[in-house]
Amino acid sequence: MKLRDSRKMNTPELMIIPMIDIMFFLLVFFMLSTMYMVDLKTIPIKLPKAENSSVDTKTTFAVSIKKDGSIWLGDKQTDIKSLTMQAMMEQKSNPAFAIIIRADKDSDYGQVIALLDTLKGAGINRFGLATDVGAGQ
């Protein structure tokens, strides 16, 4: 009869695979839950598509230019002068301030340039142009 060796201790085994599964589940859960936390009030416009674009949600102002040339800040219609004043006040209080311009693909390109020129003249230098993520057109 063979007796157990008393010098040998049974060490507990750490099962790593279930822990990895739980970590991936938590990662997916938090990624999906943060996507629904961002509430961006905008008006519906058709954005042009771009192949090499990225999404950045750390902006302060989302400015939309509709097909008819009207300018919207969030869900309120505005003009270039009042938008510039609001942007200048925001930039003073927020050094990481940026503006995302969502121009309809059928809108006047000169309107976008006029808006950019006016904002740059007011000292606002952080811009982004919104596009739909997908194949370029």
From TrEMBL:
<keyword id="KW-0653">Protein transport</keyword>
<protein>
    <submittedName>
        <fullName>Biopolymer transporter ExbD</fullName>
    </submittedName>
</protein>
<keyword id="KW-0812">Transmembrane</keyword>
<dbReference type="GO" id="GO:0015031">
    <property type="term" value="P:protein transport"/>
</dbReference>
<comment type="similarity">
    <text>Belongs to the ExbD/TolR family.</text>
</comment>
<keyword id="KW-1003">Cell membrane</keyword>
<keyword id="KW-0813">Transport</keyword>
<dbReference type="InterPro" id="IPR003400">
    <property type="entry name" value="ExbD"/>
</dbReference>
<keyword id="KW-1133">Transmembrane helix</keyword>
<feature type="transmembrane region" description="Helical">
    <location>
        <begin position="15"/>
        <end position="38"/>
    </location>
</feature>
<dbReference type="GO" id="GO:0005886">
    <property type="term" value="C:plasma membrane"/>
</dbReference>
<dbReference type="GO" id="GO:0022857">
    <property type="term" value="F:transmembrane transporter activity"/>
</dbReference>
<dbReference type="Pfam" id="PF02472">
    <property type="entry name" value="ExbD"/>
</dbReference>
<keyword id="KW-0472">Membrane</keyword>
